Amino acid sequence: MKSSPHRPSIELLFKRGLGSAEIARRLQISSSTVRNVVAAIKKRGDASEVKKSGRPRSVNTRNTRAIIKKRIIRNDGLSLNRMASQLGIARSTVQSIVKNDLKLKSY
Prior knowledge:
It is found in: Nucleus. By secondary structure, this protein is mainly α.
């Protein structure tokens, strides 16, 4: 989930005493976004983002996905095996990027 660029505005308006519905109306954003940010303010005291837990992506990065997408669009006849070996990553990783991230079907 991406963080809202409205976090500072929501925090300011909430600390001024406005309710979630009024903040959502003024900023023209969804009330659920406002409620989530307000809940974070109540829990932690501010609206700053919390570092995500879990293992970071090391191979399936934005850059790798872009390279794979460009090669597929270019249609140079590369198999997923060959593309994986040229990139130095596992074939299964290339396959999951194509299927899950790029929403394409390999055949």
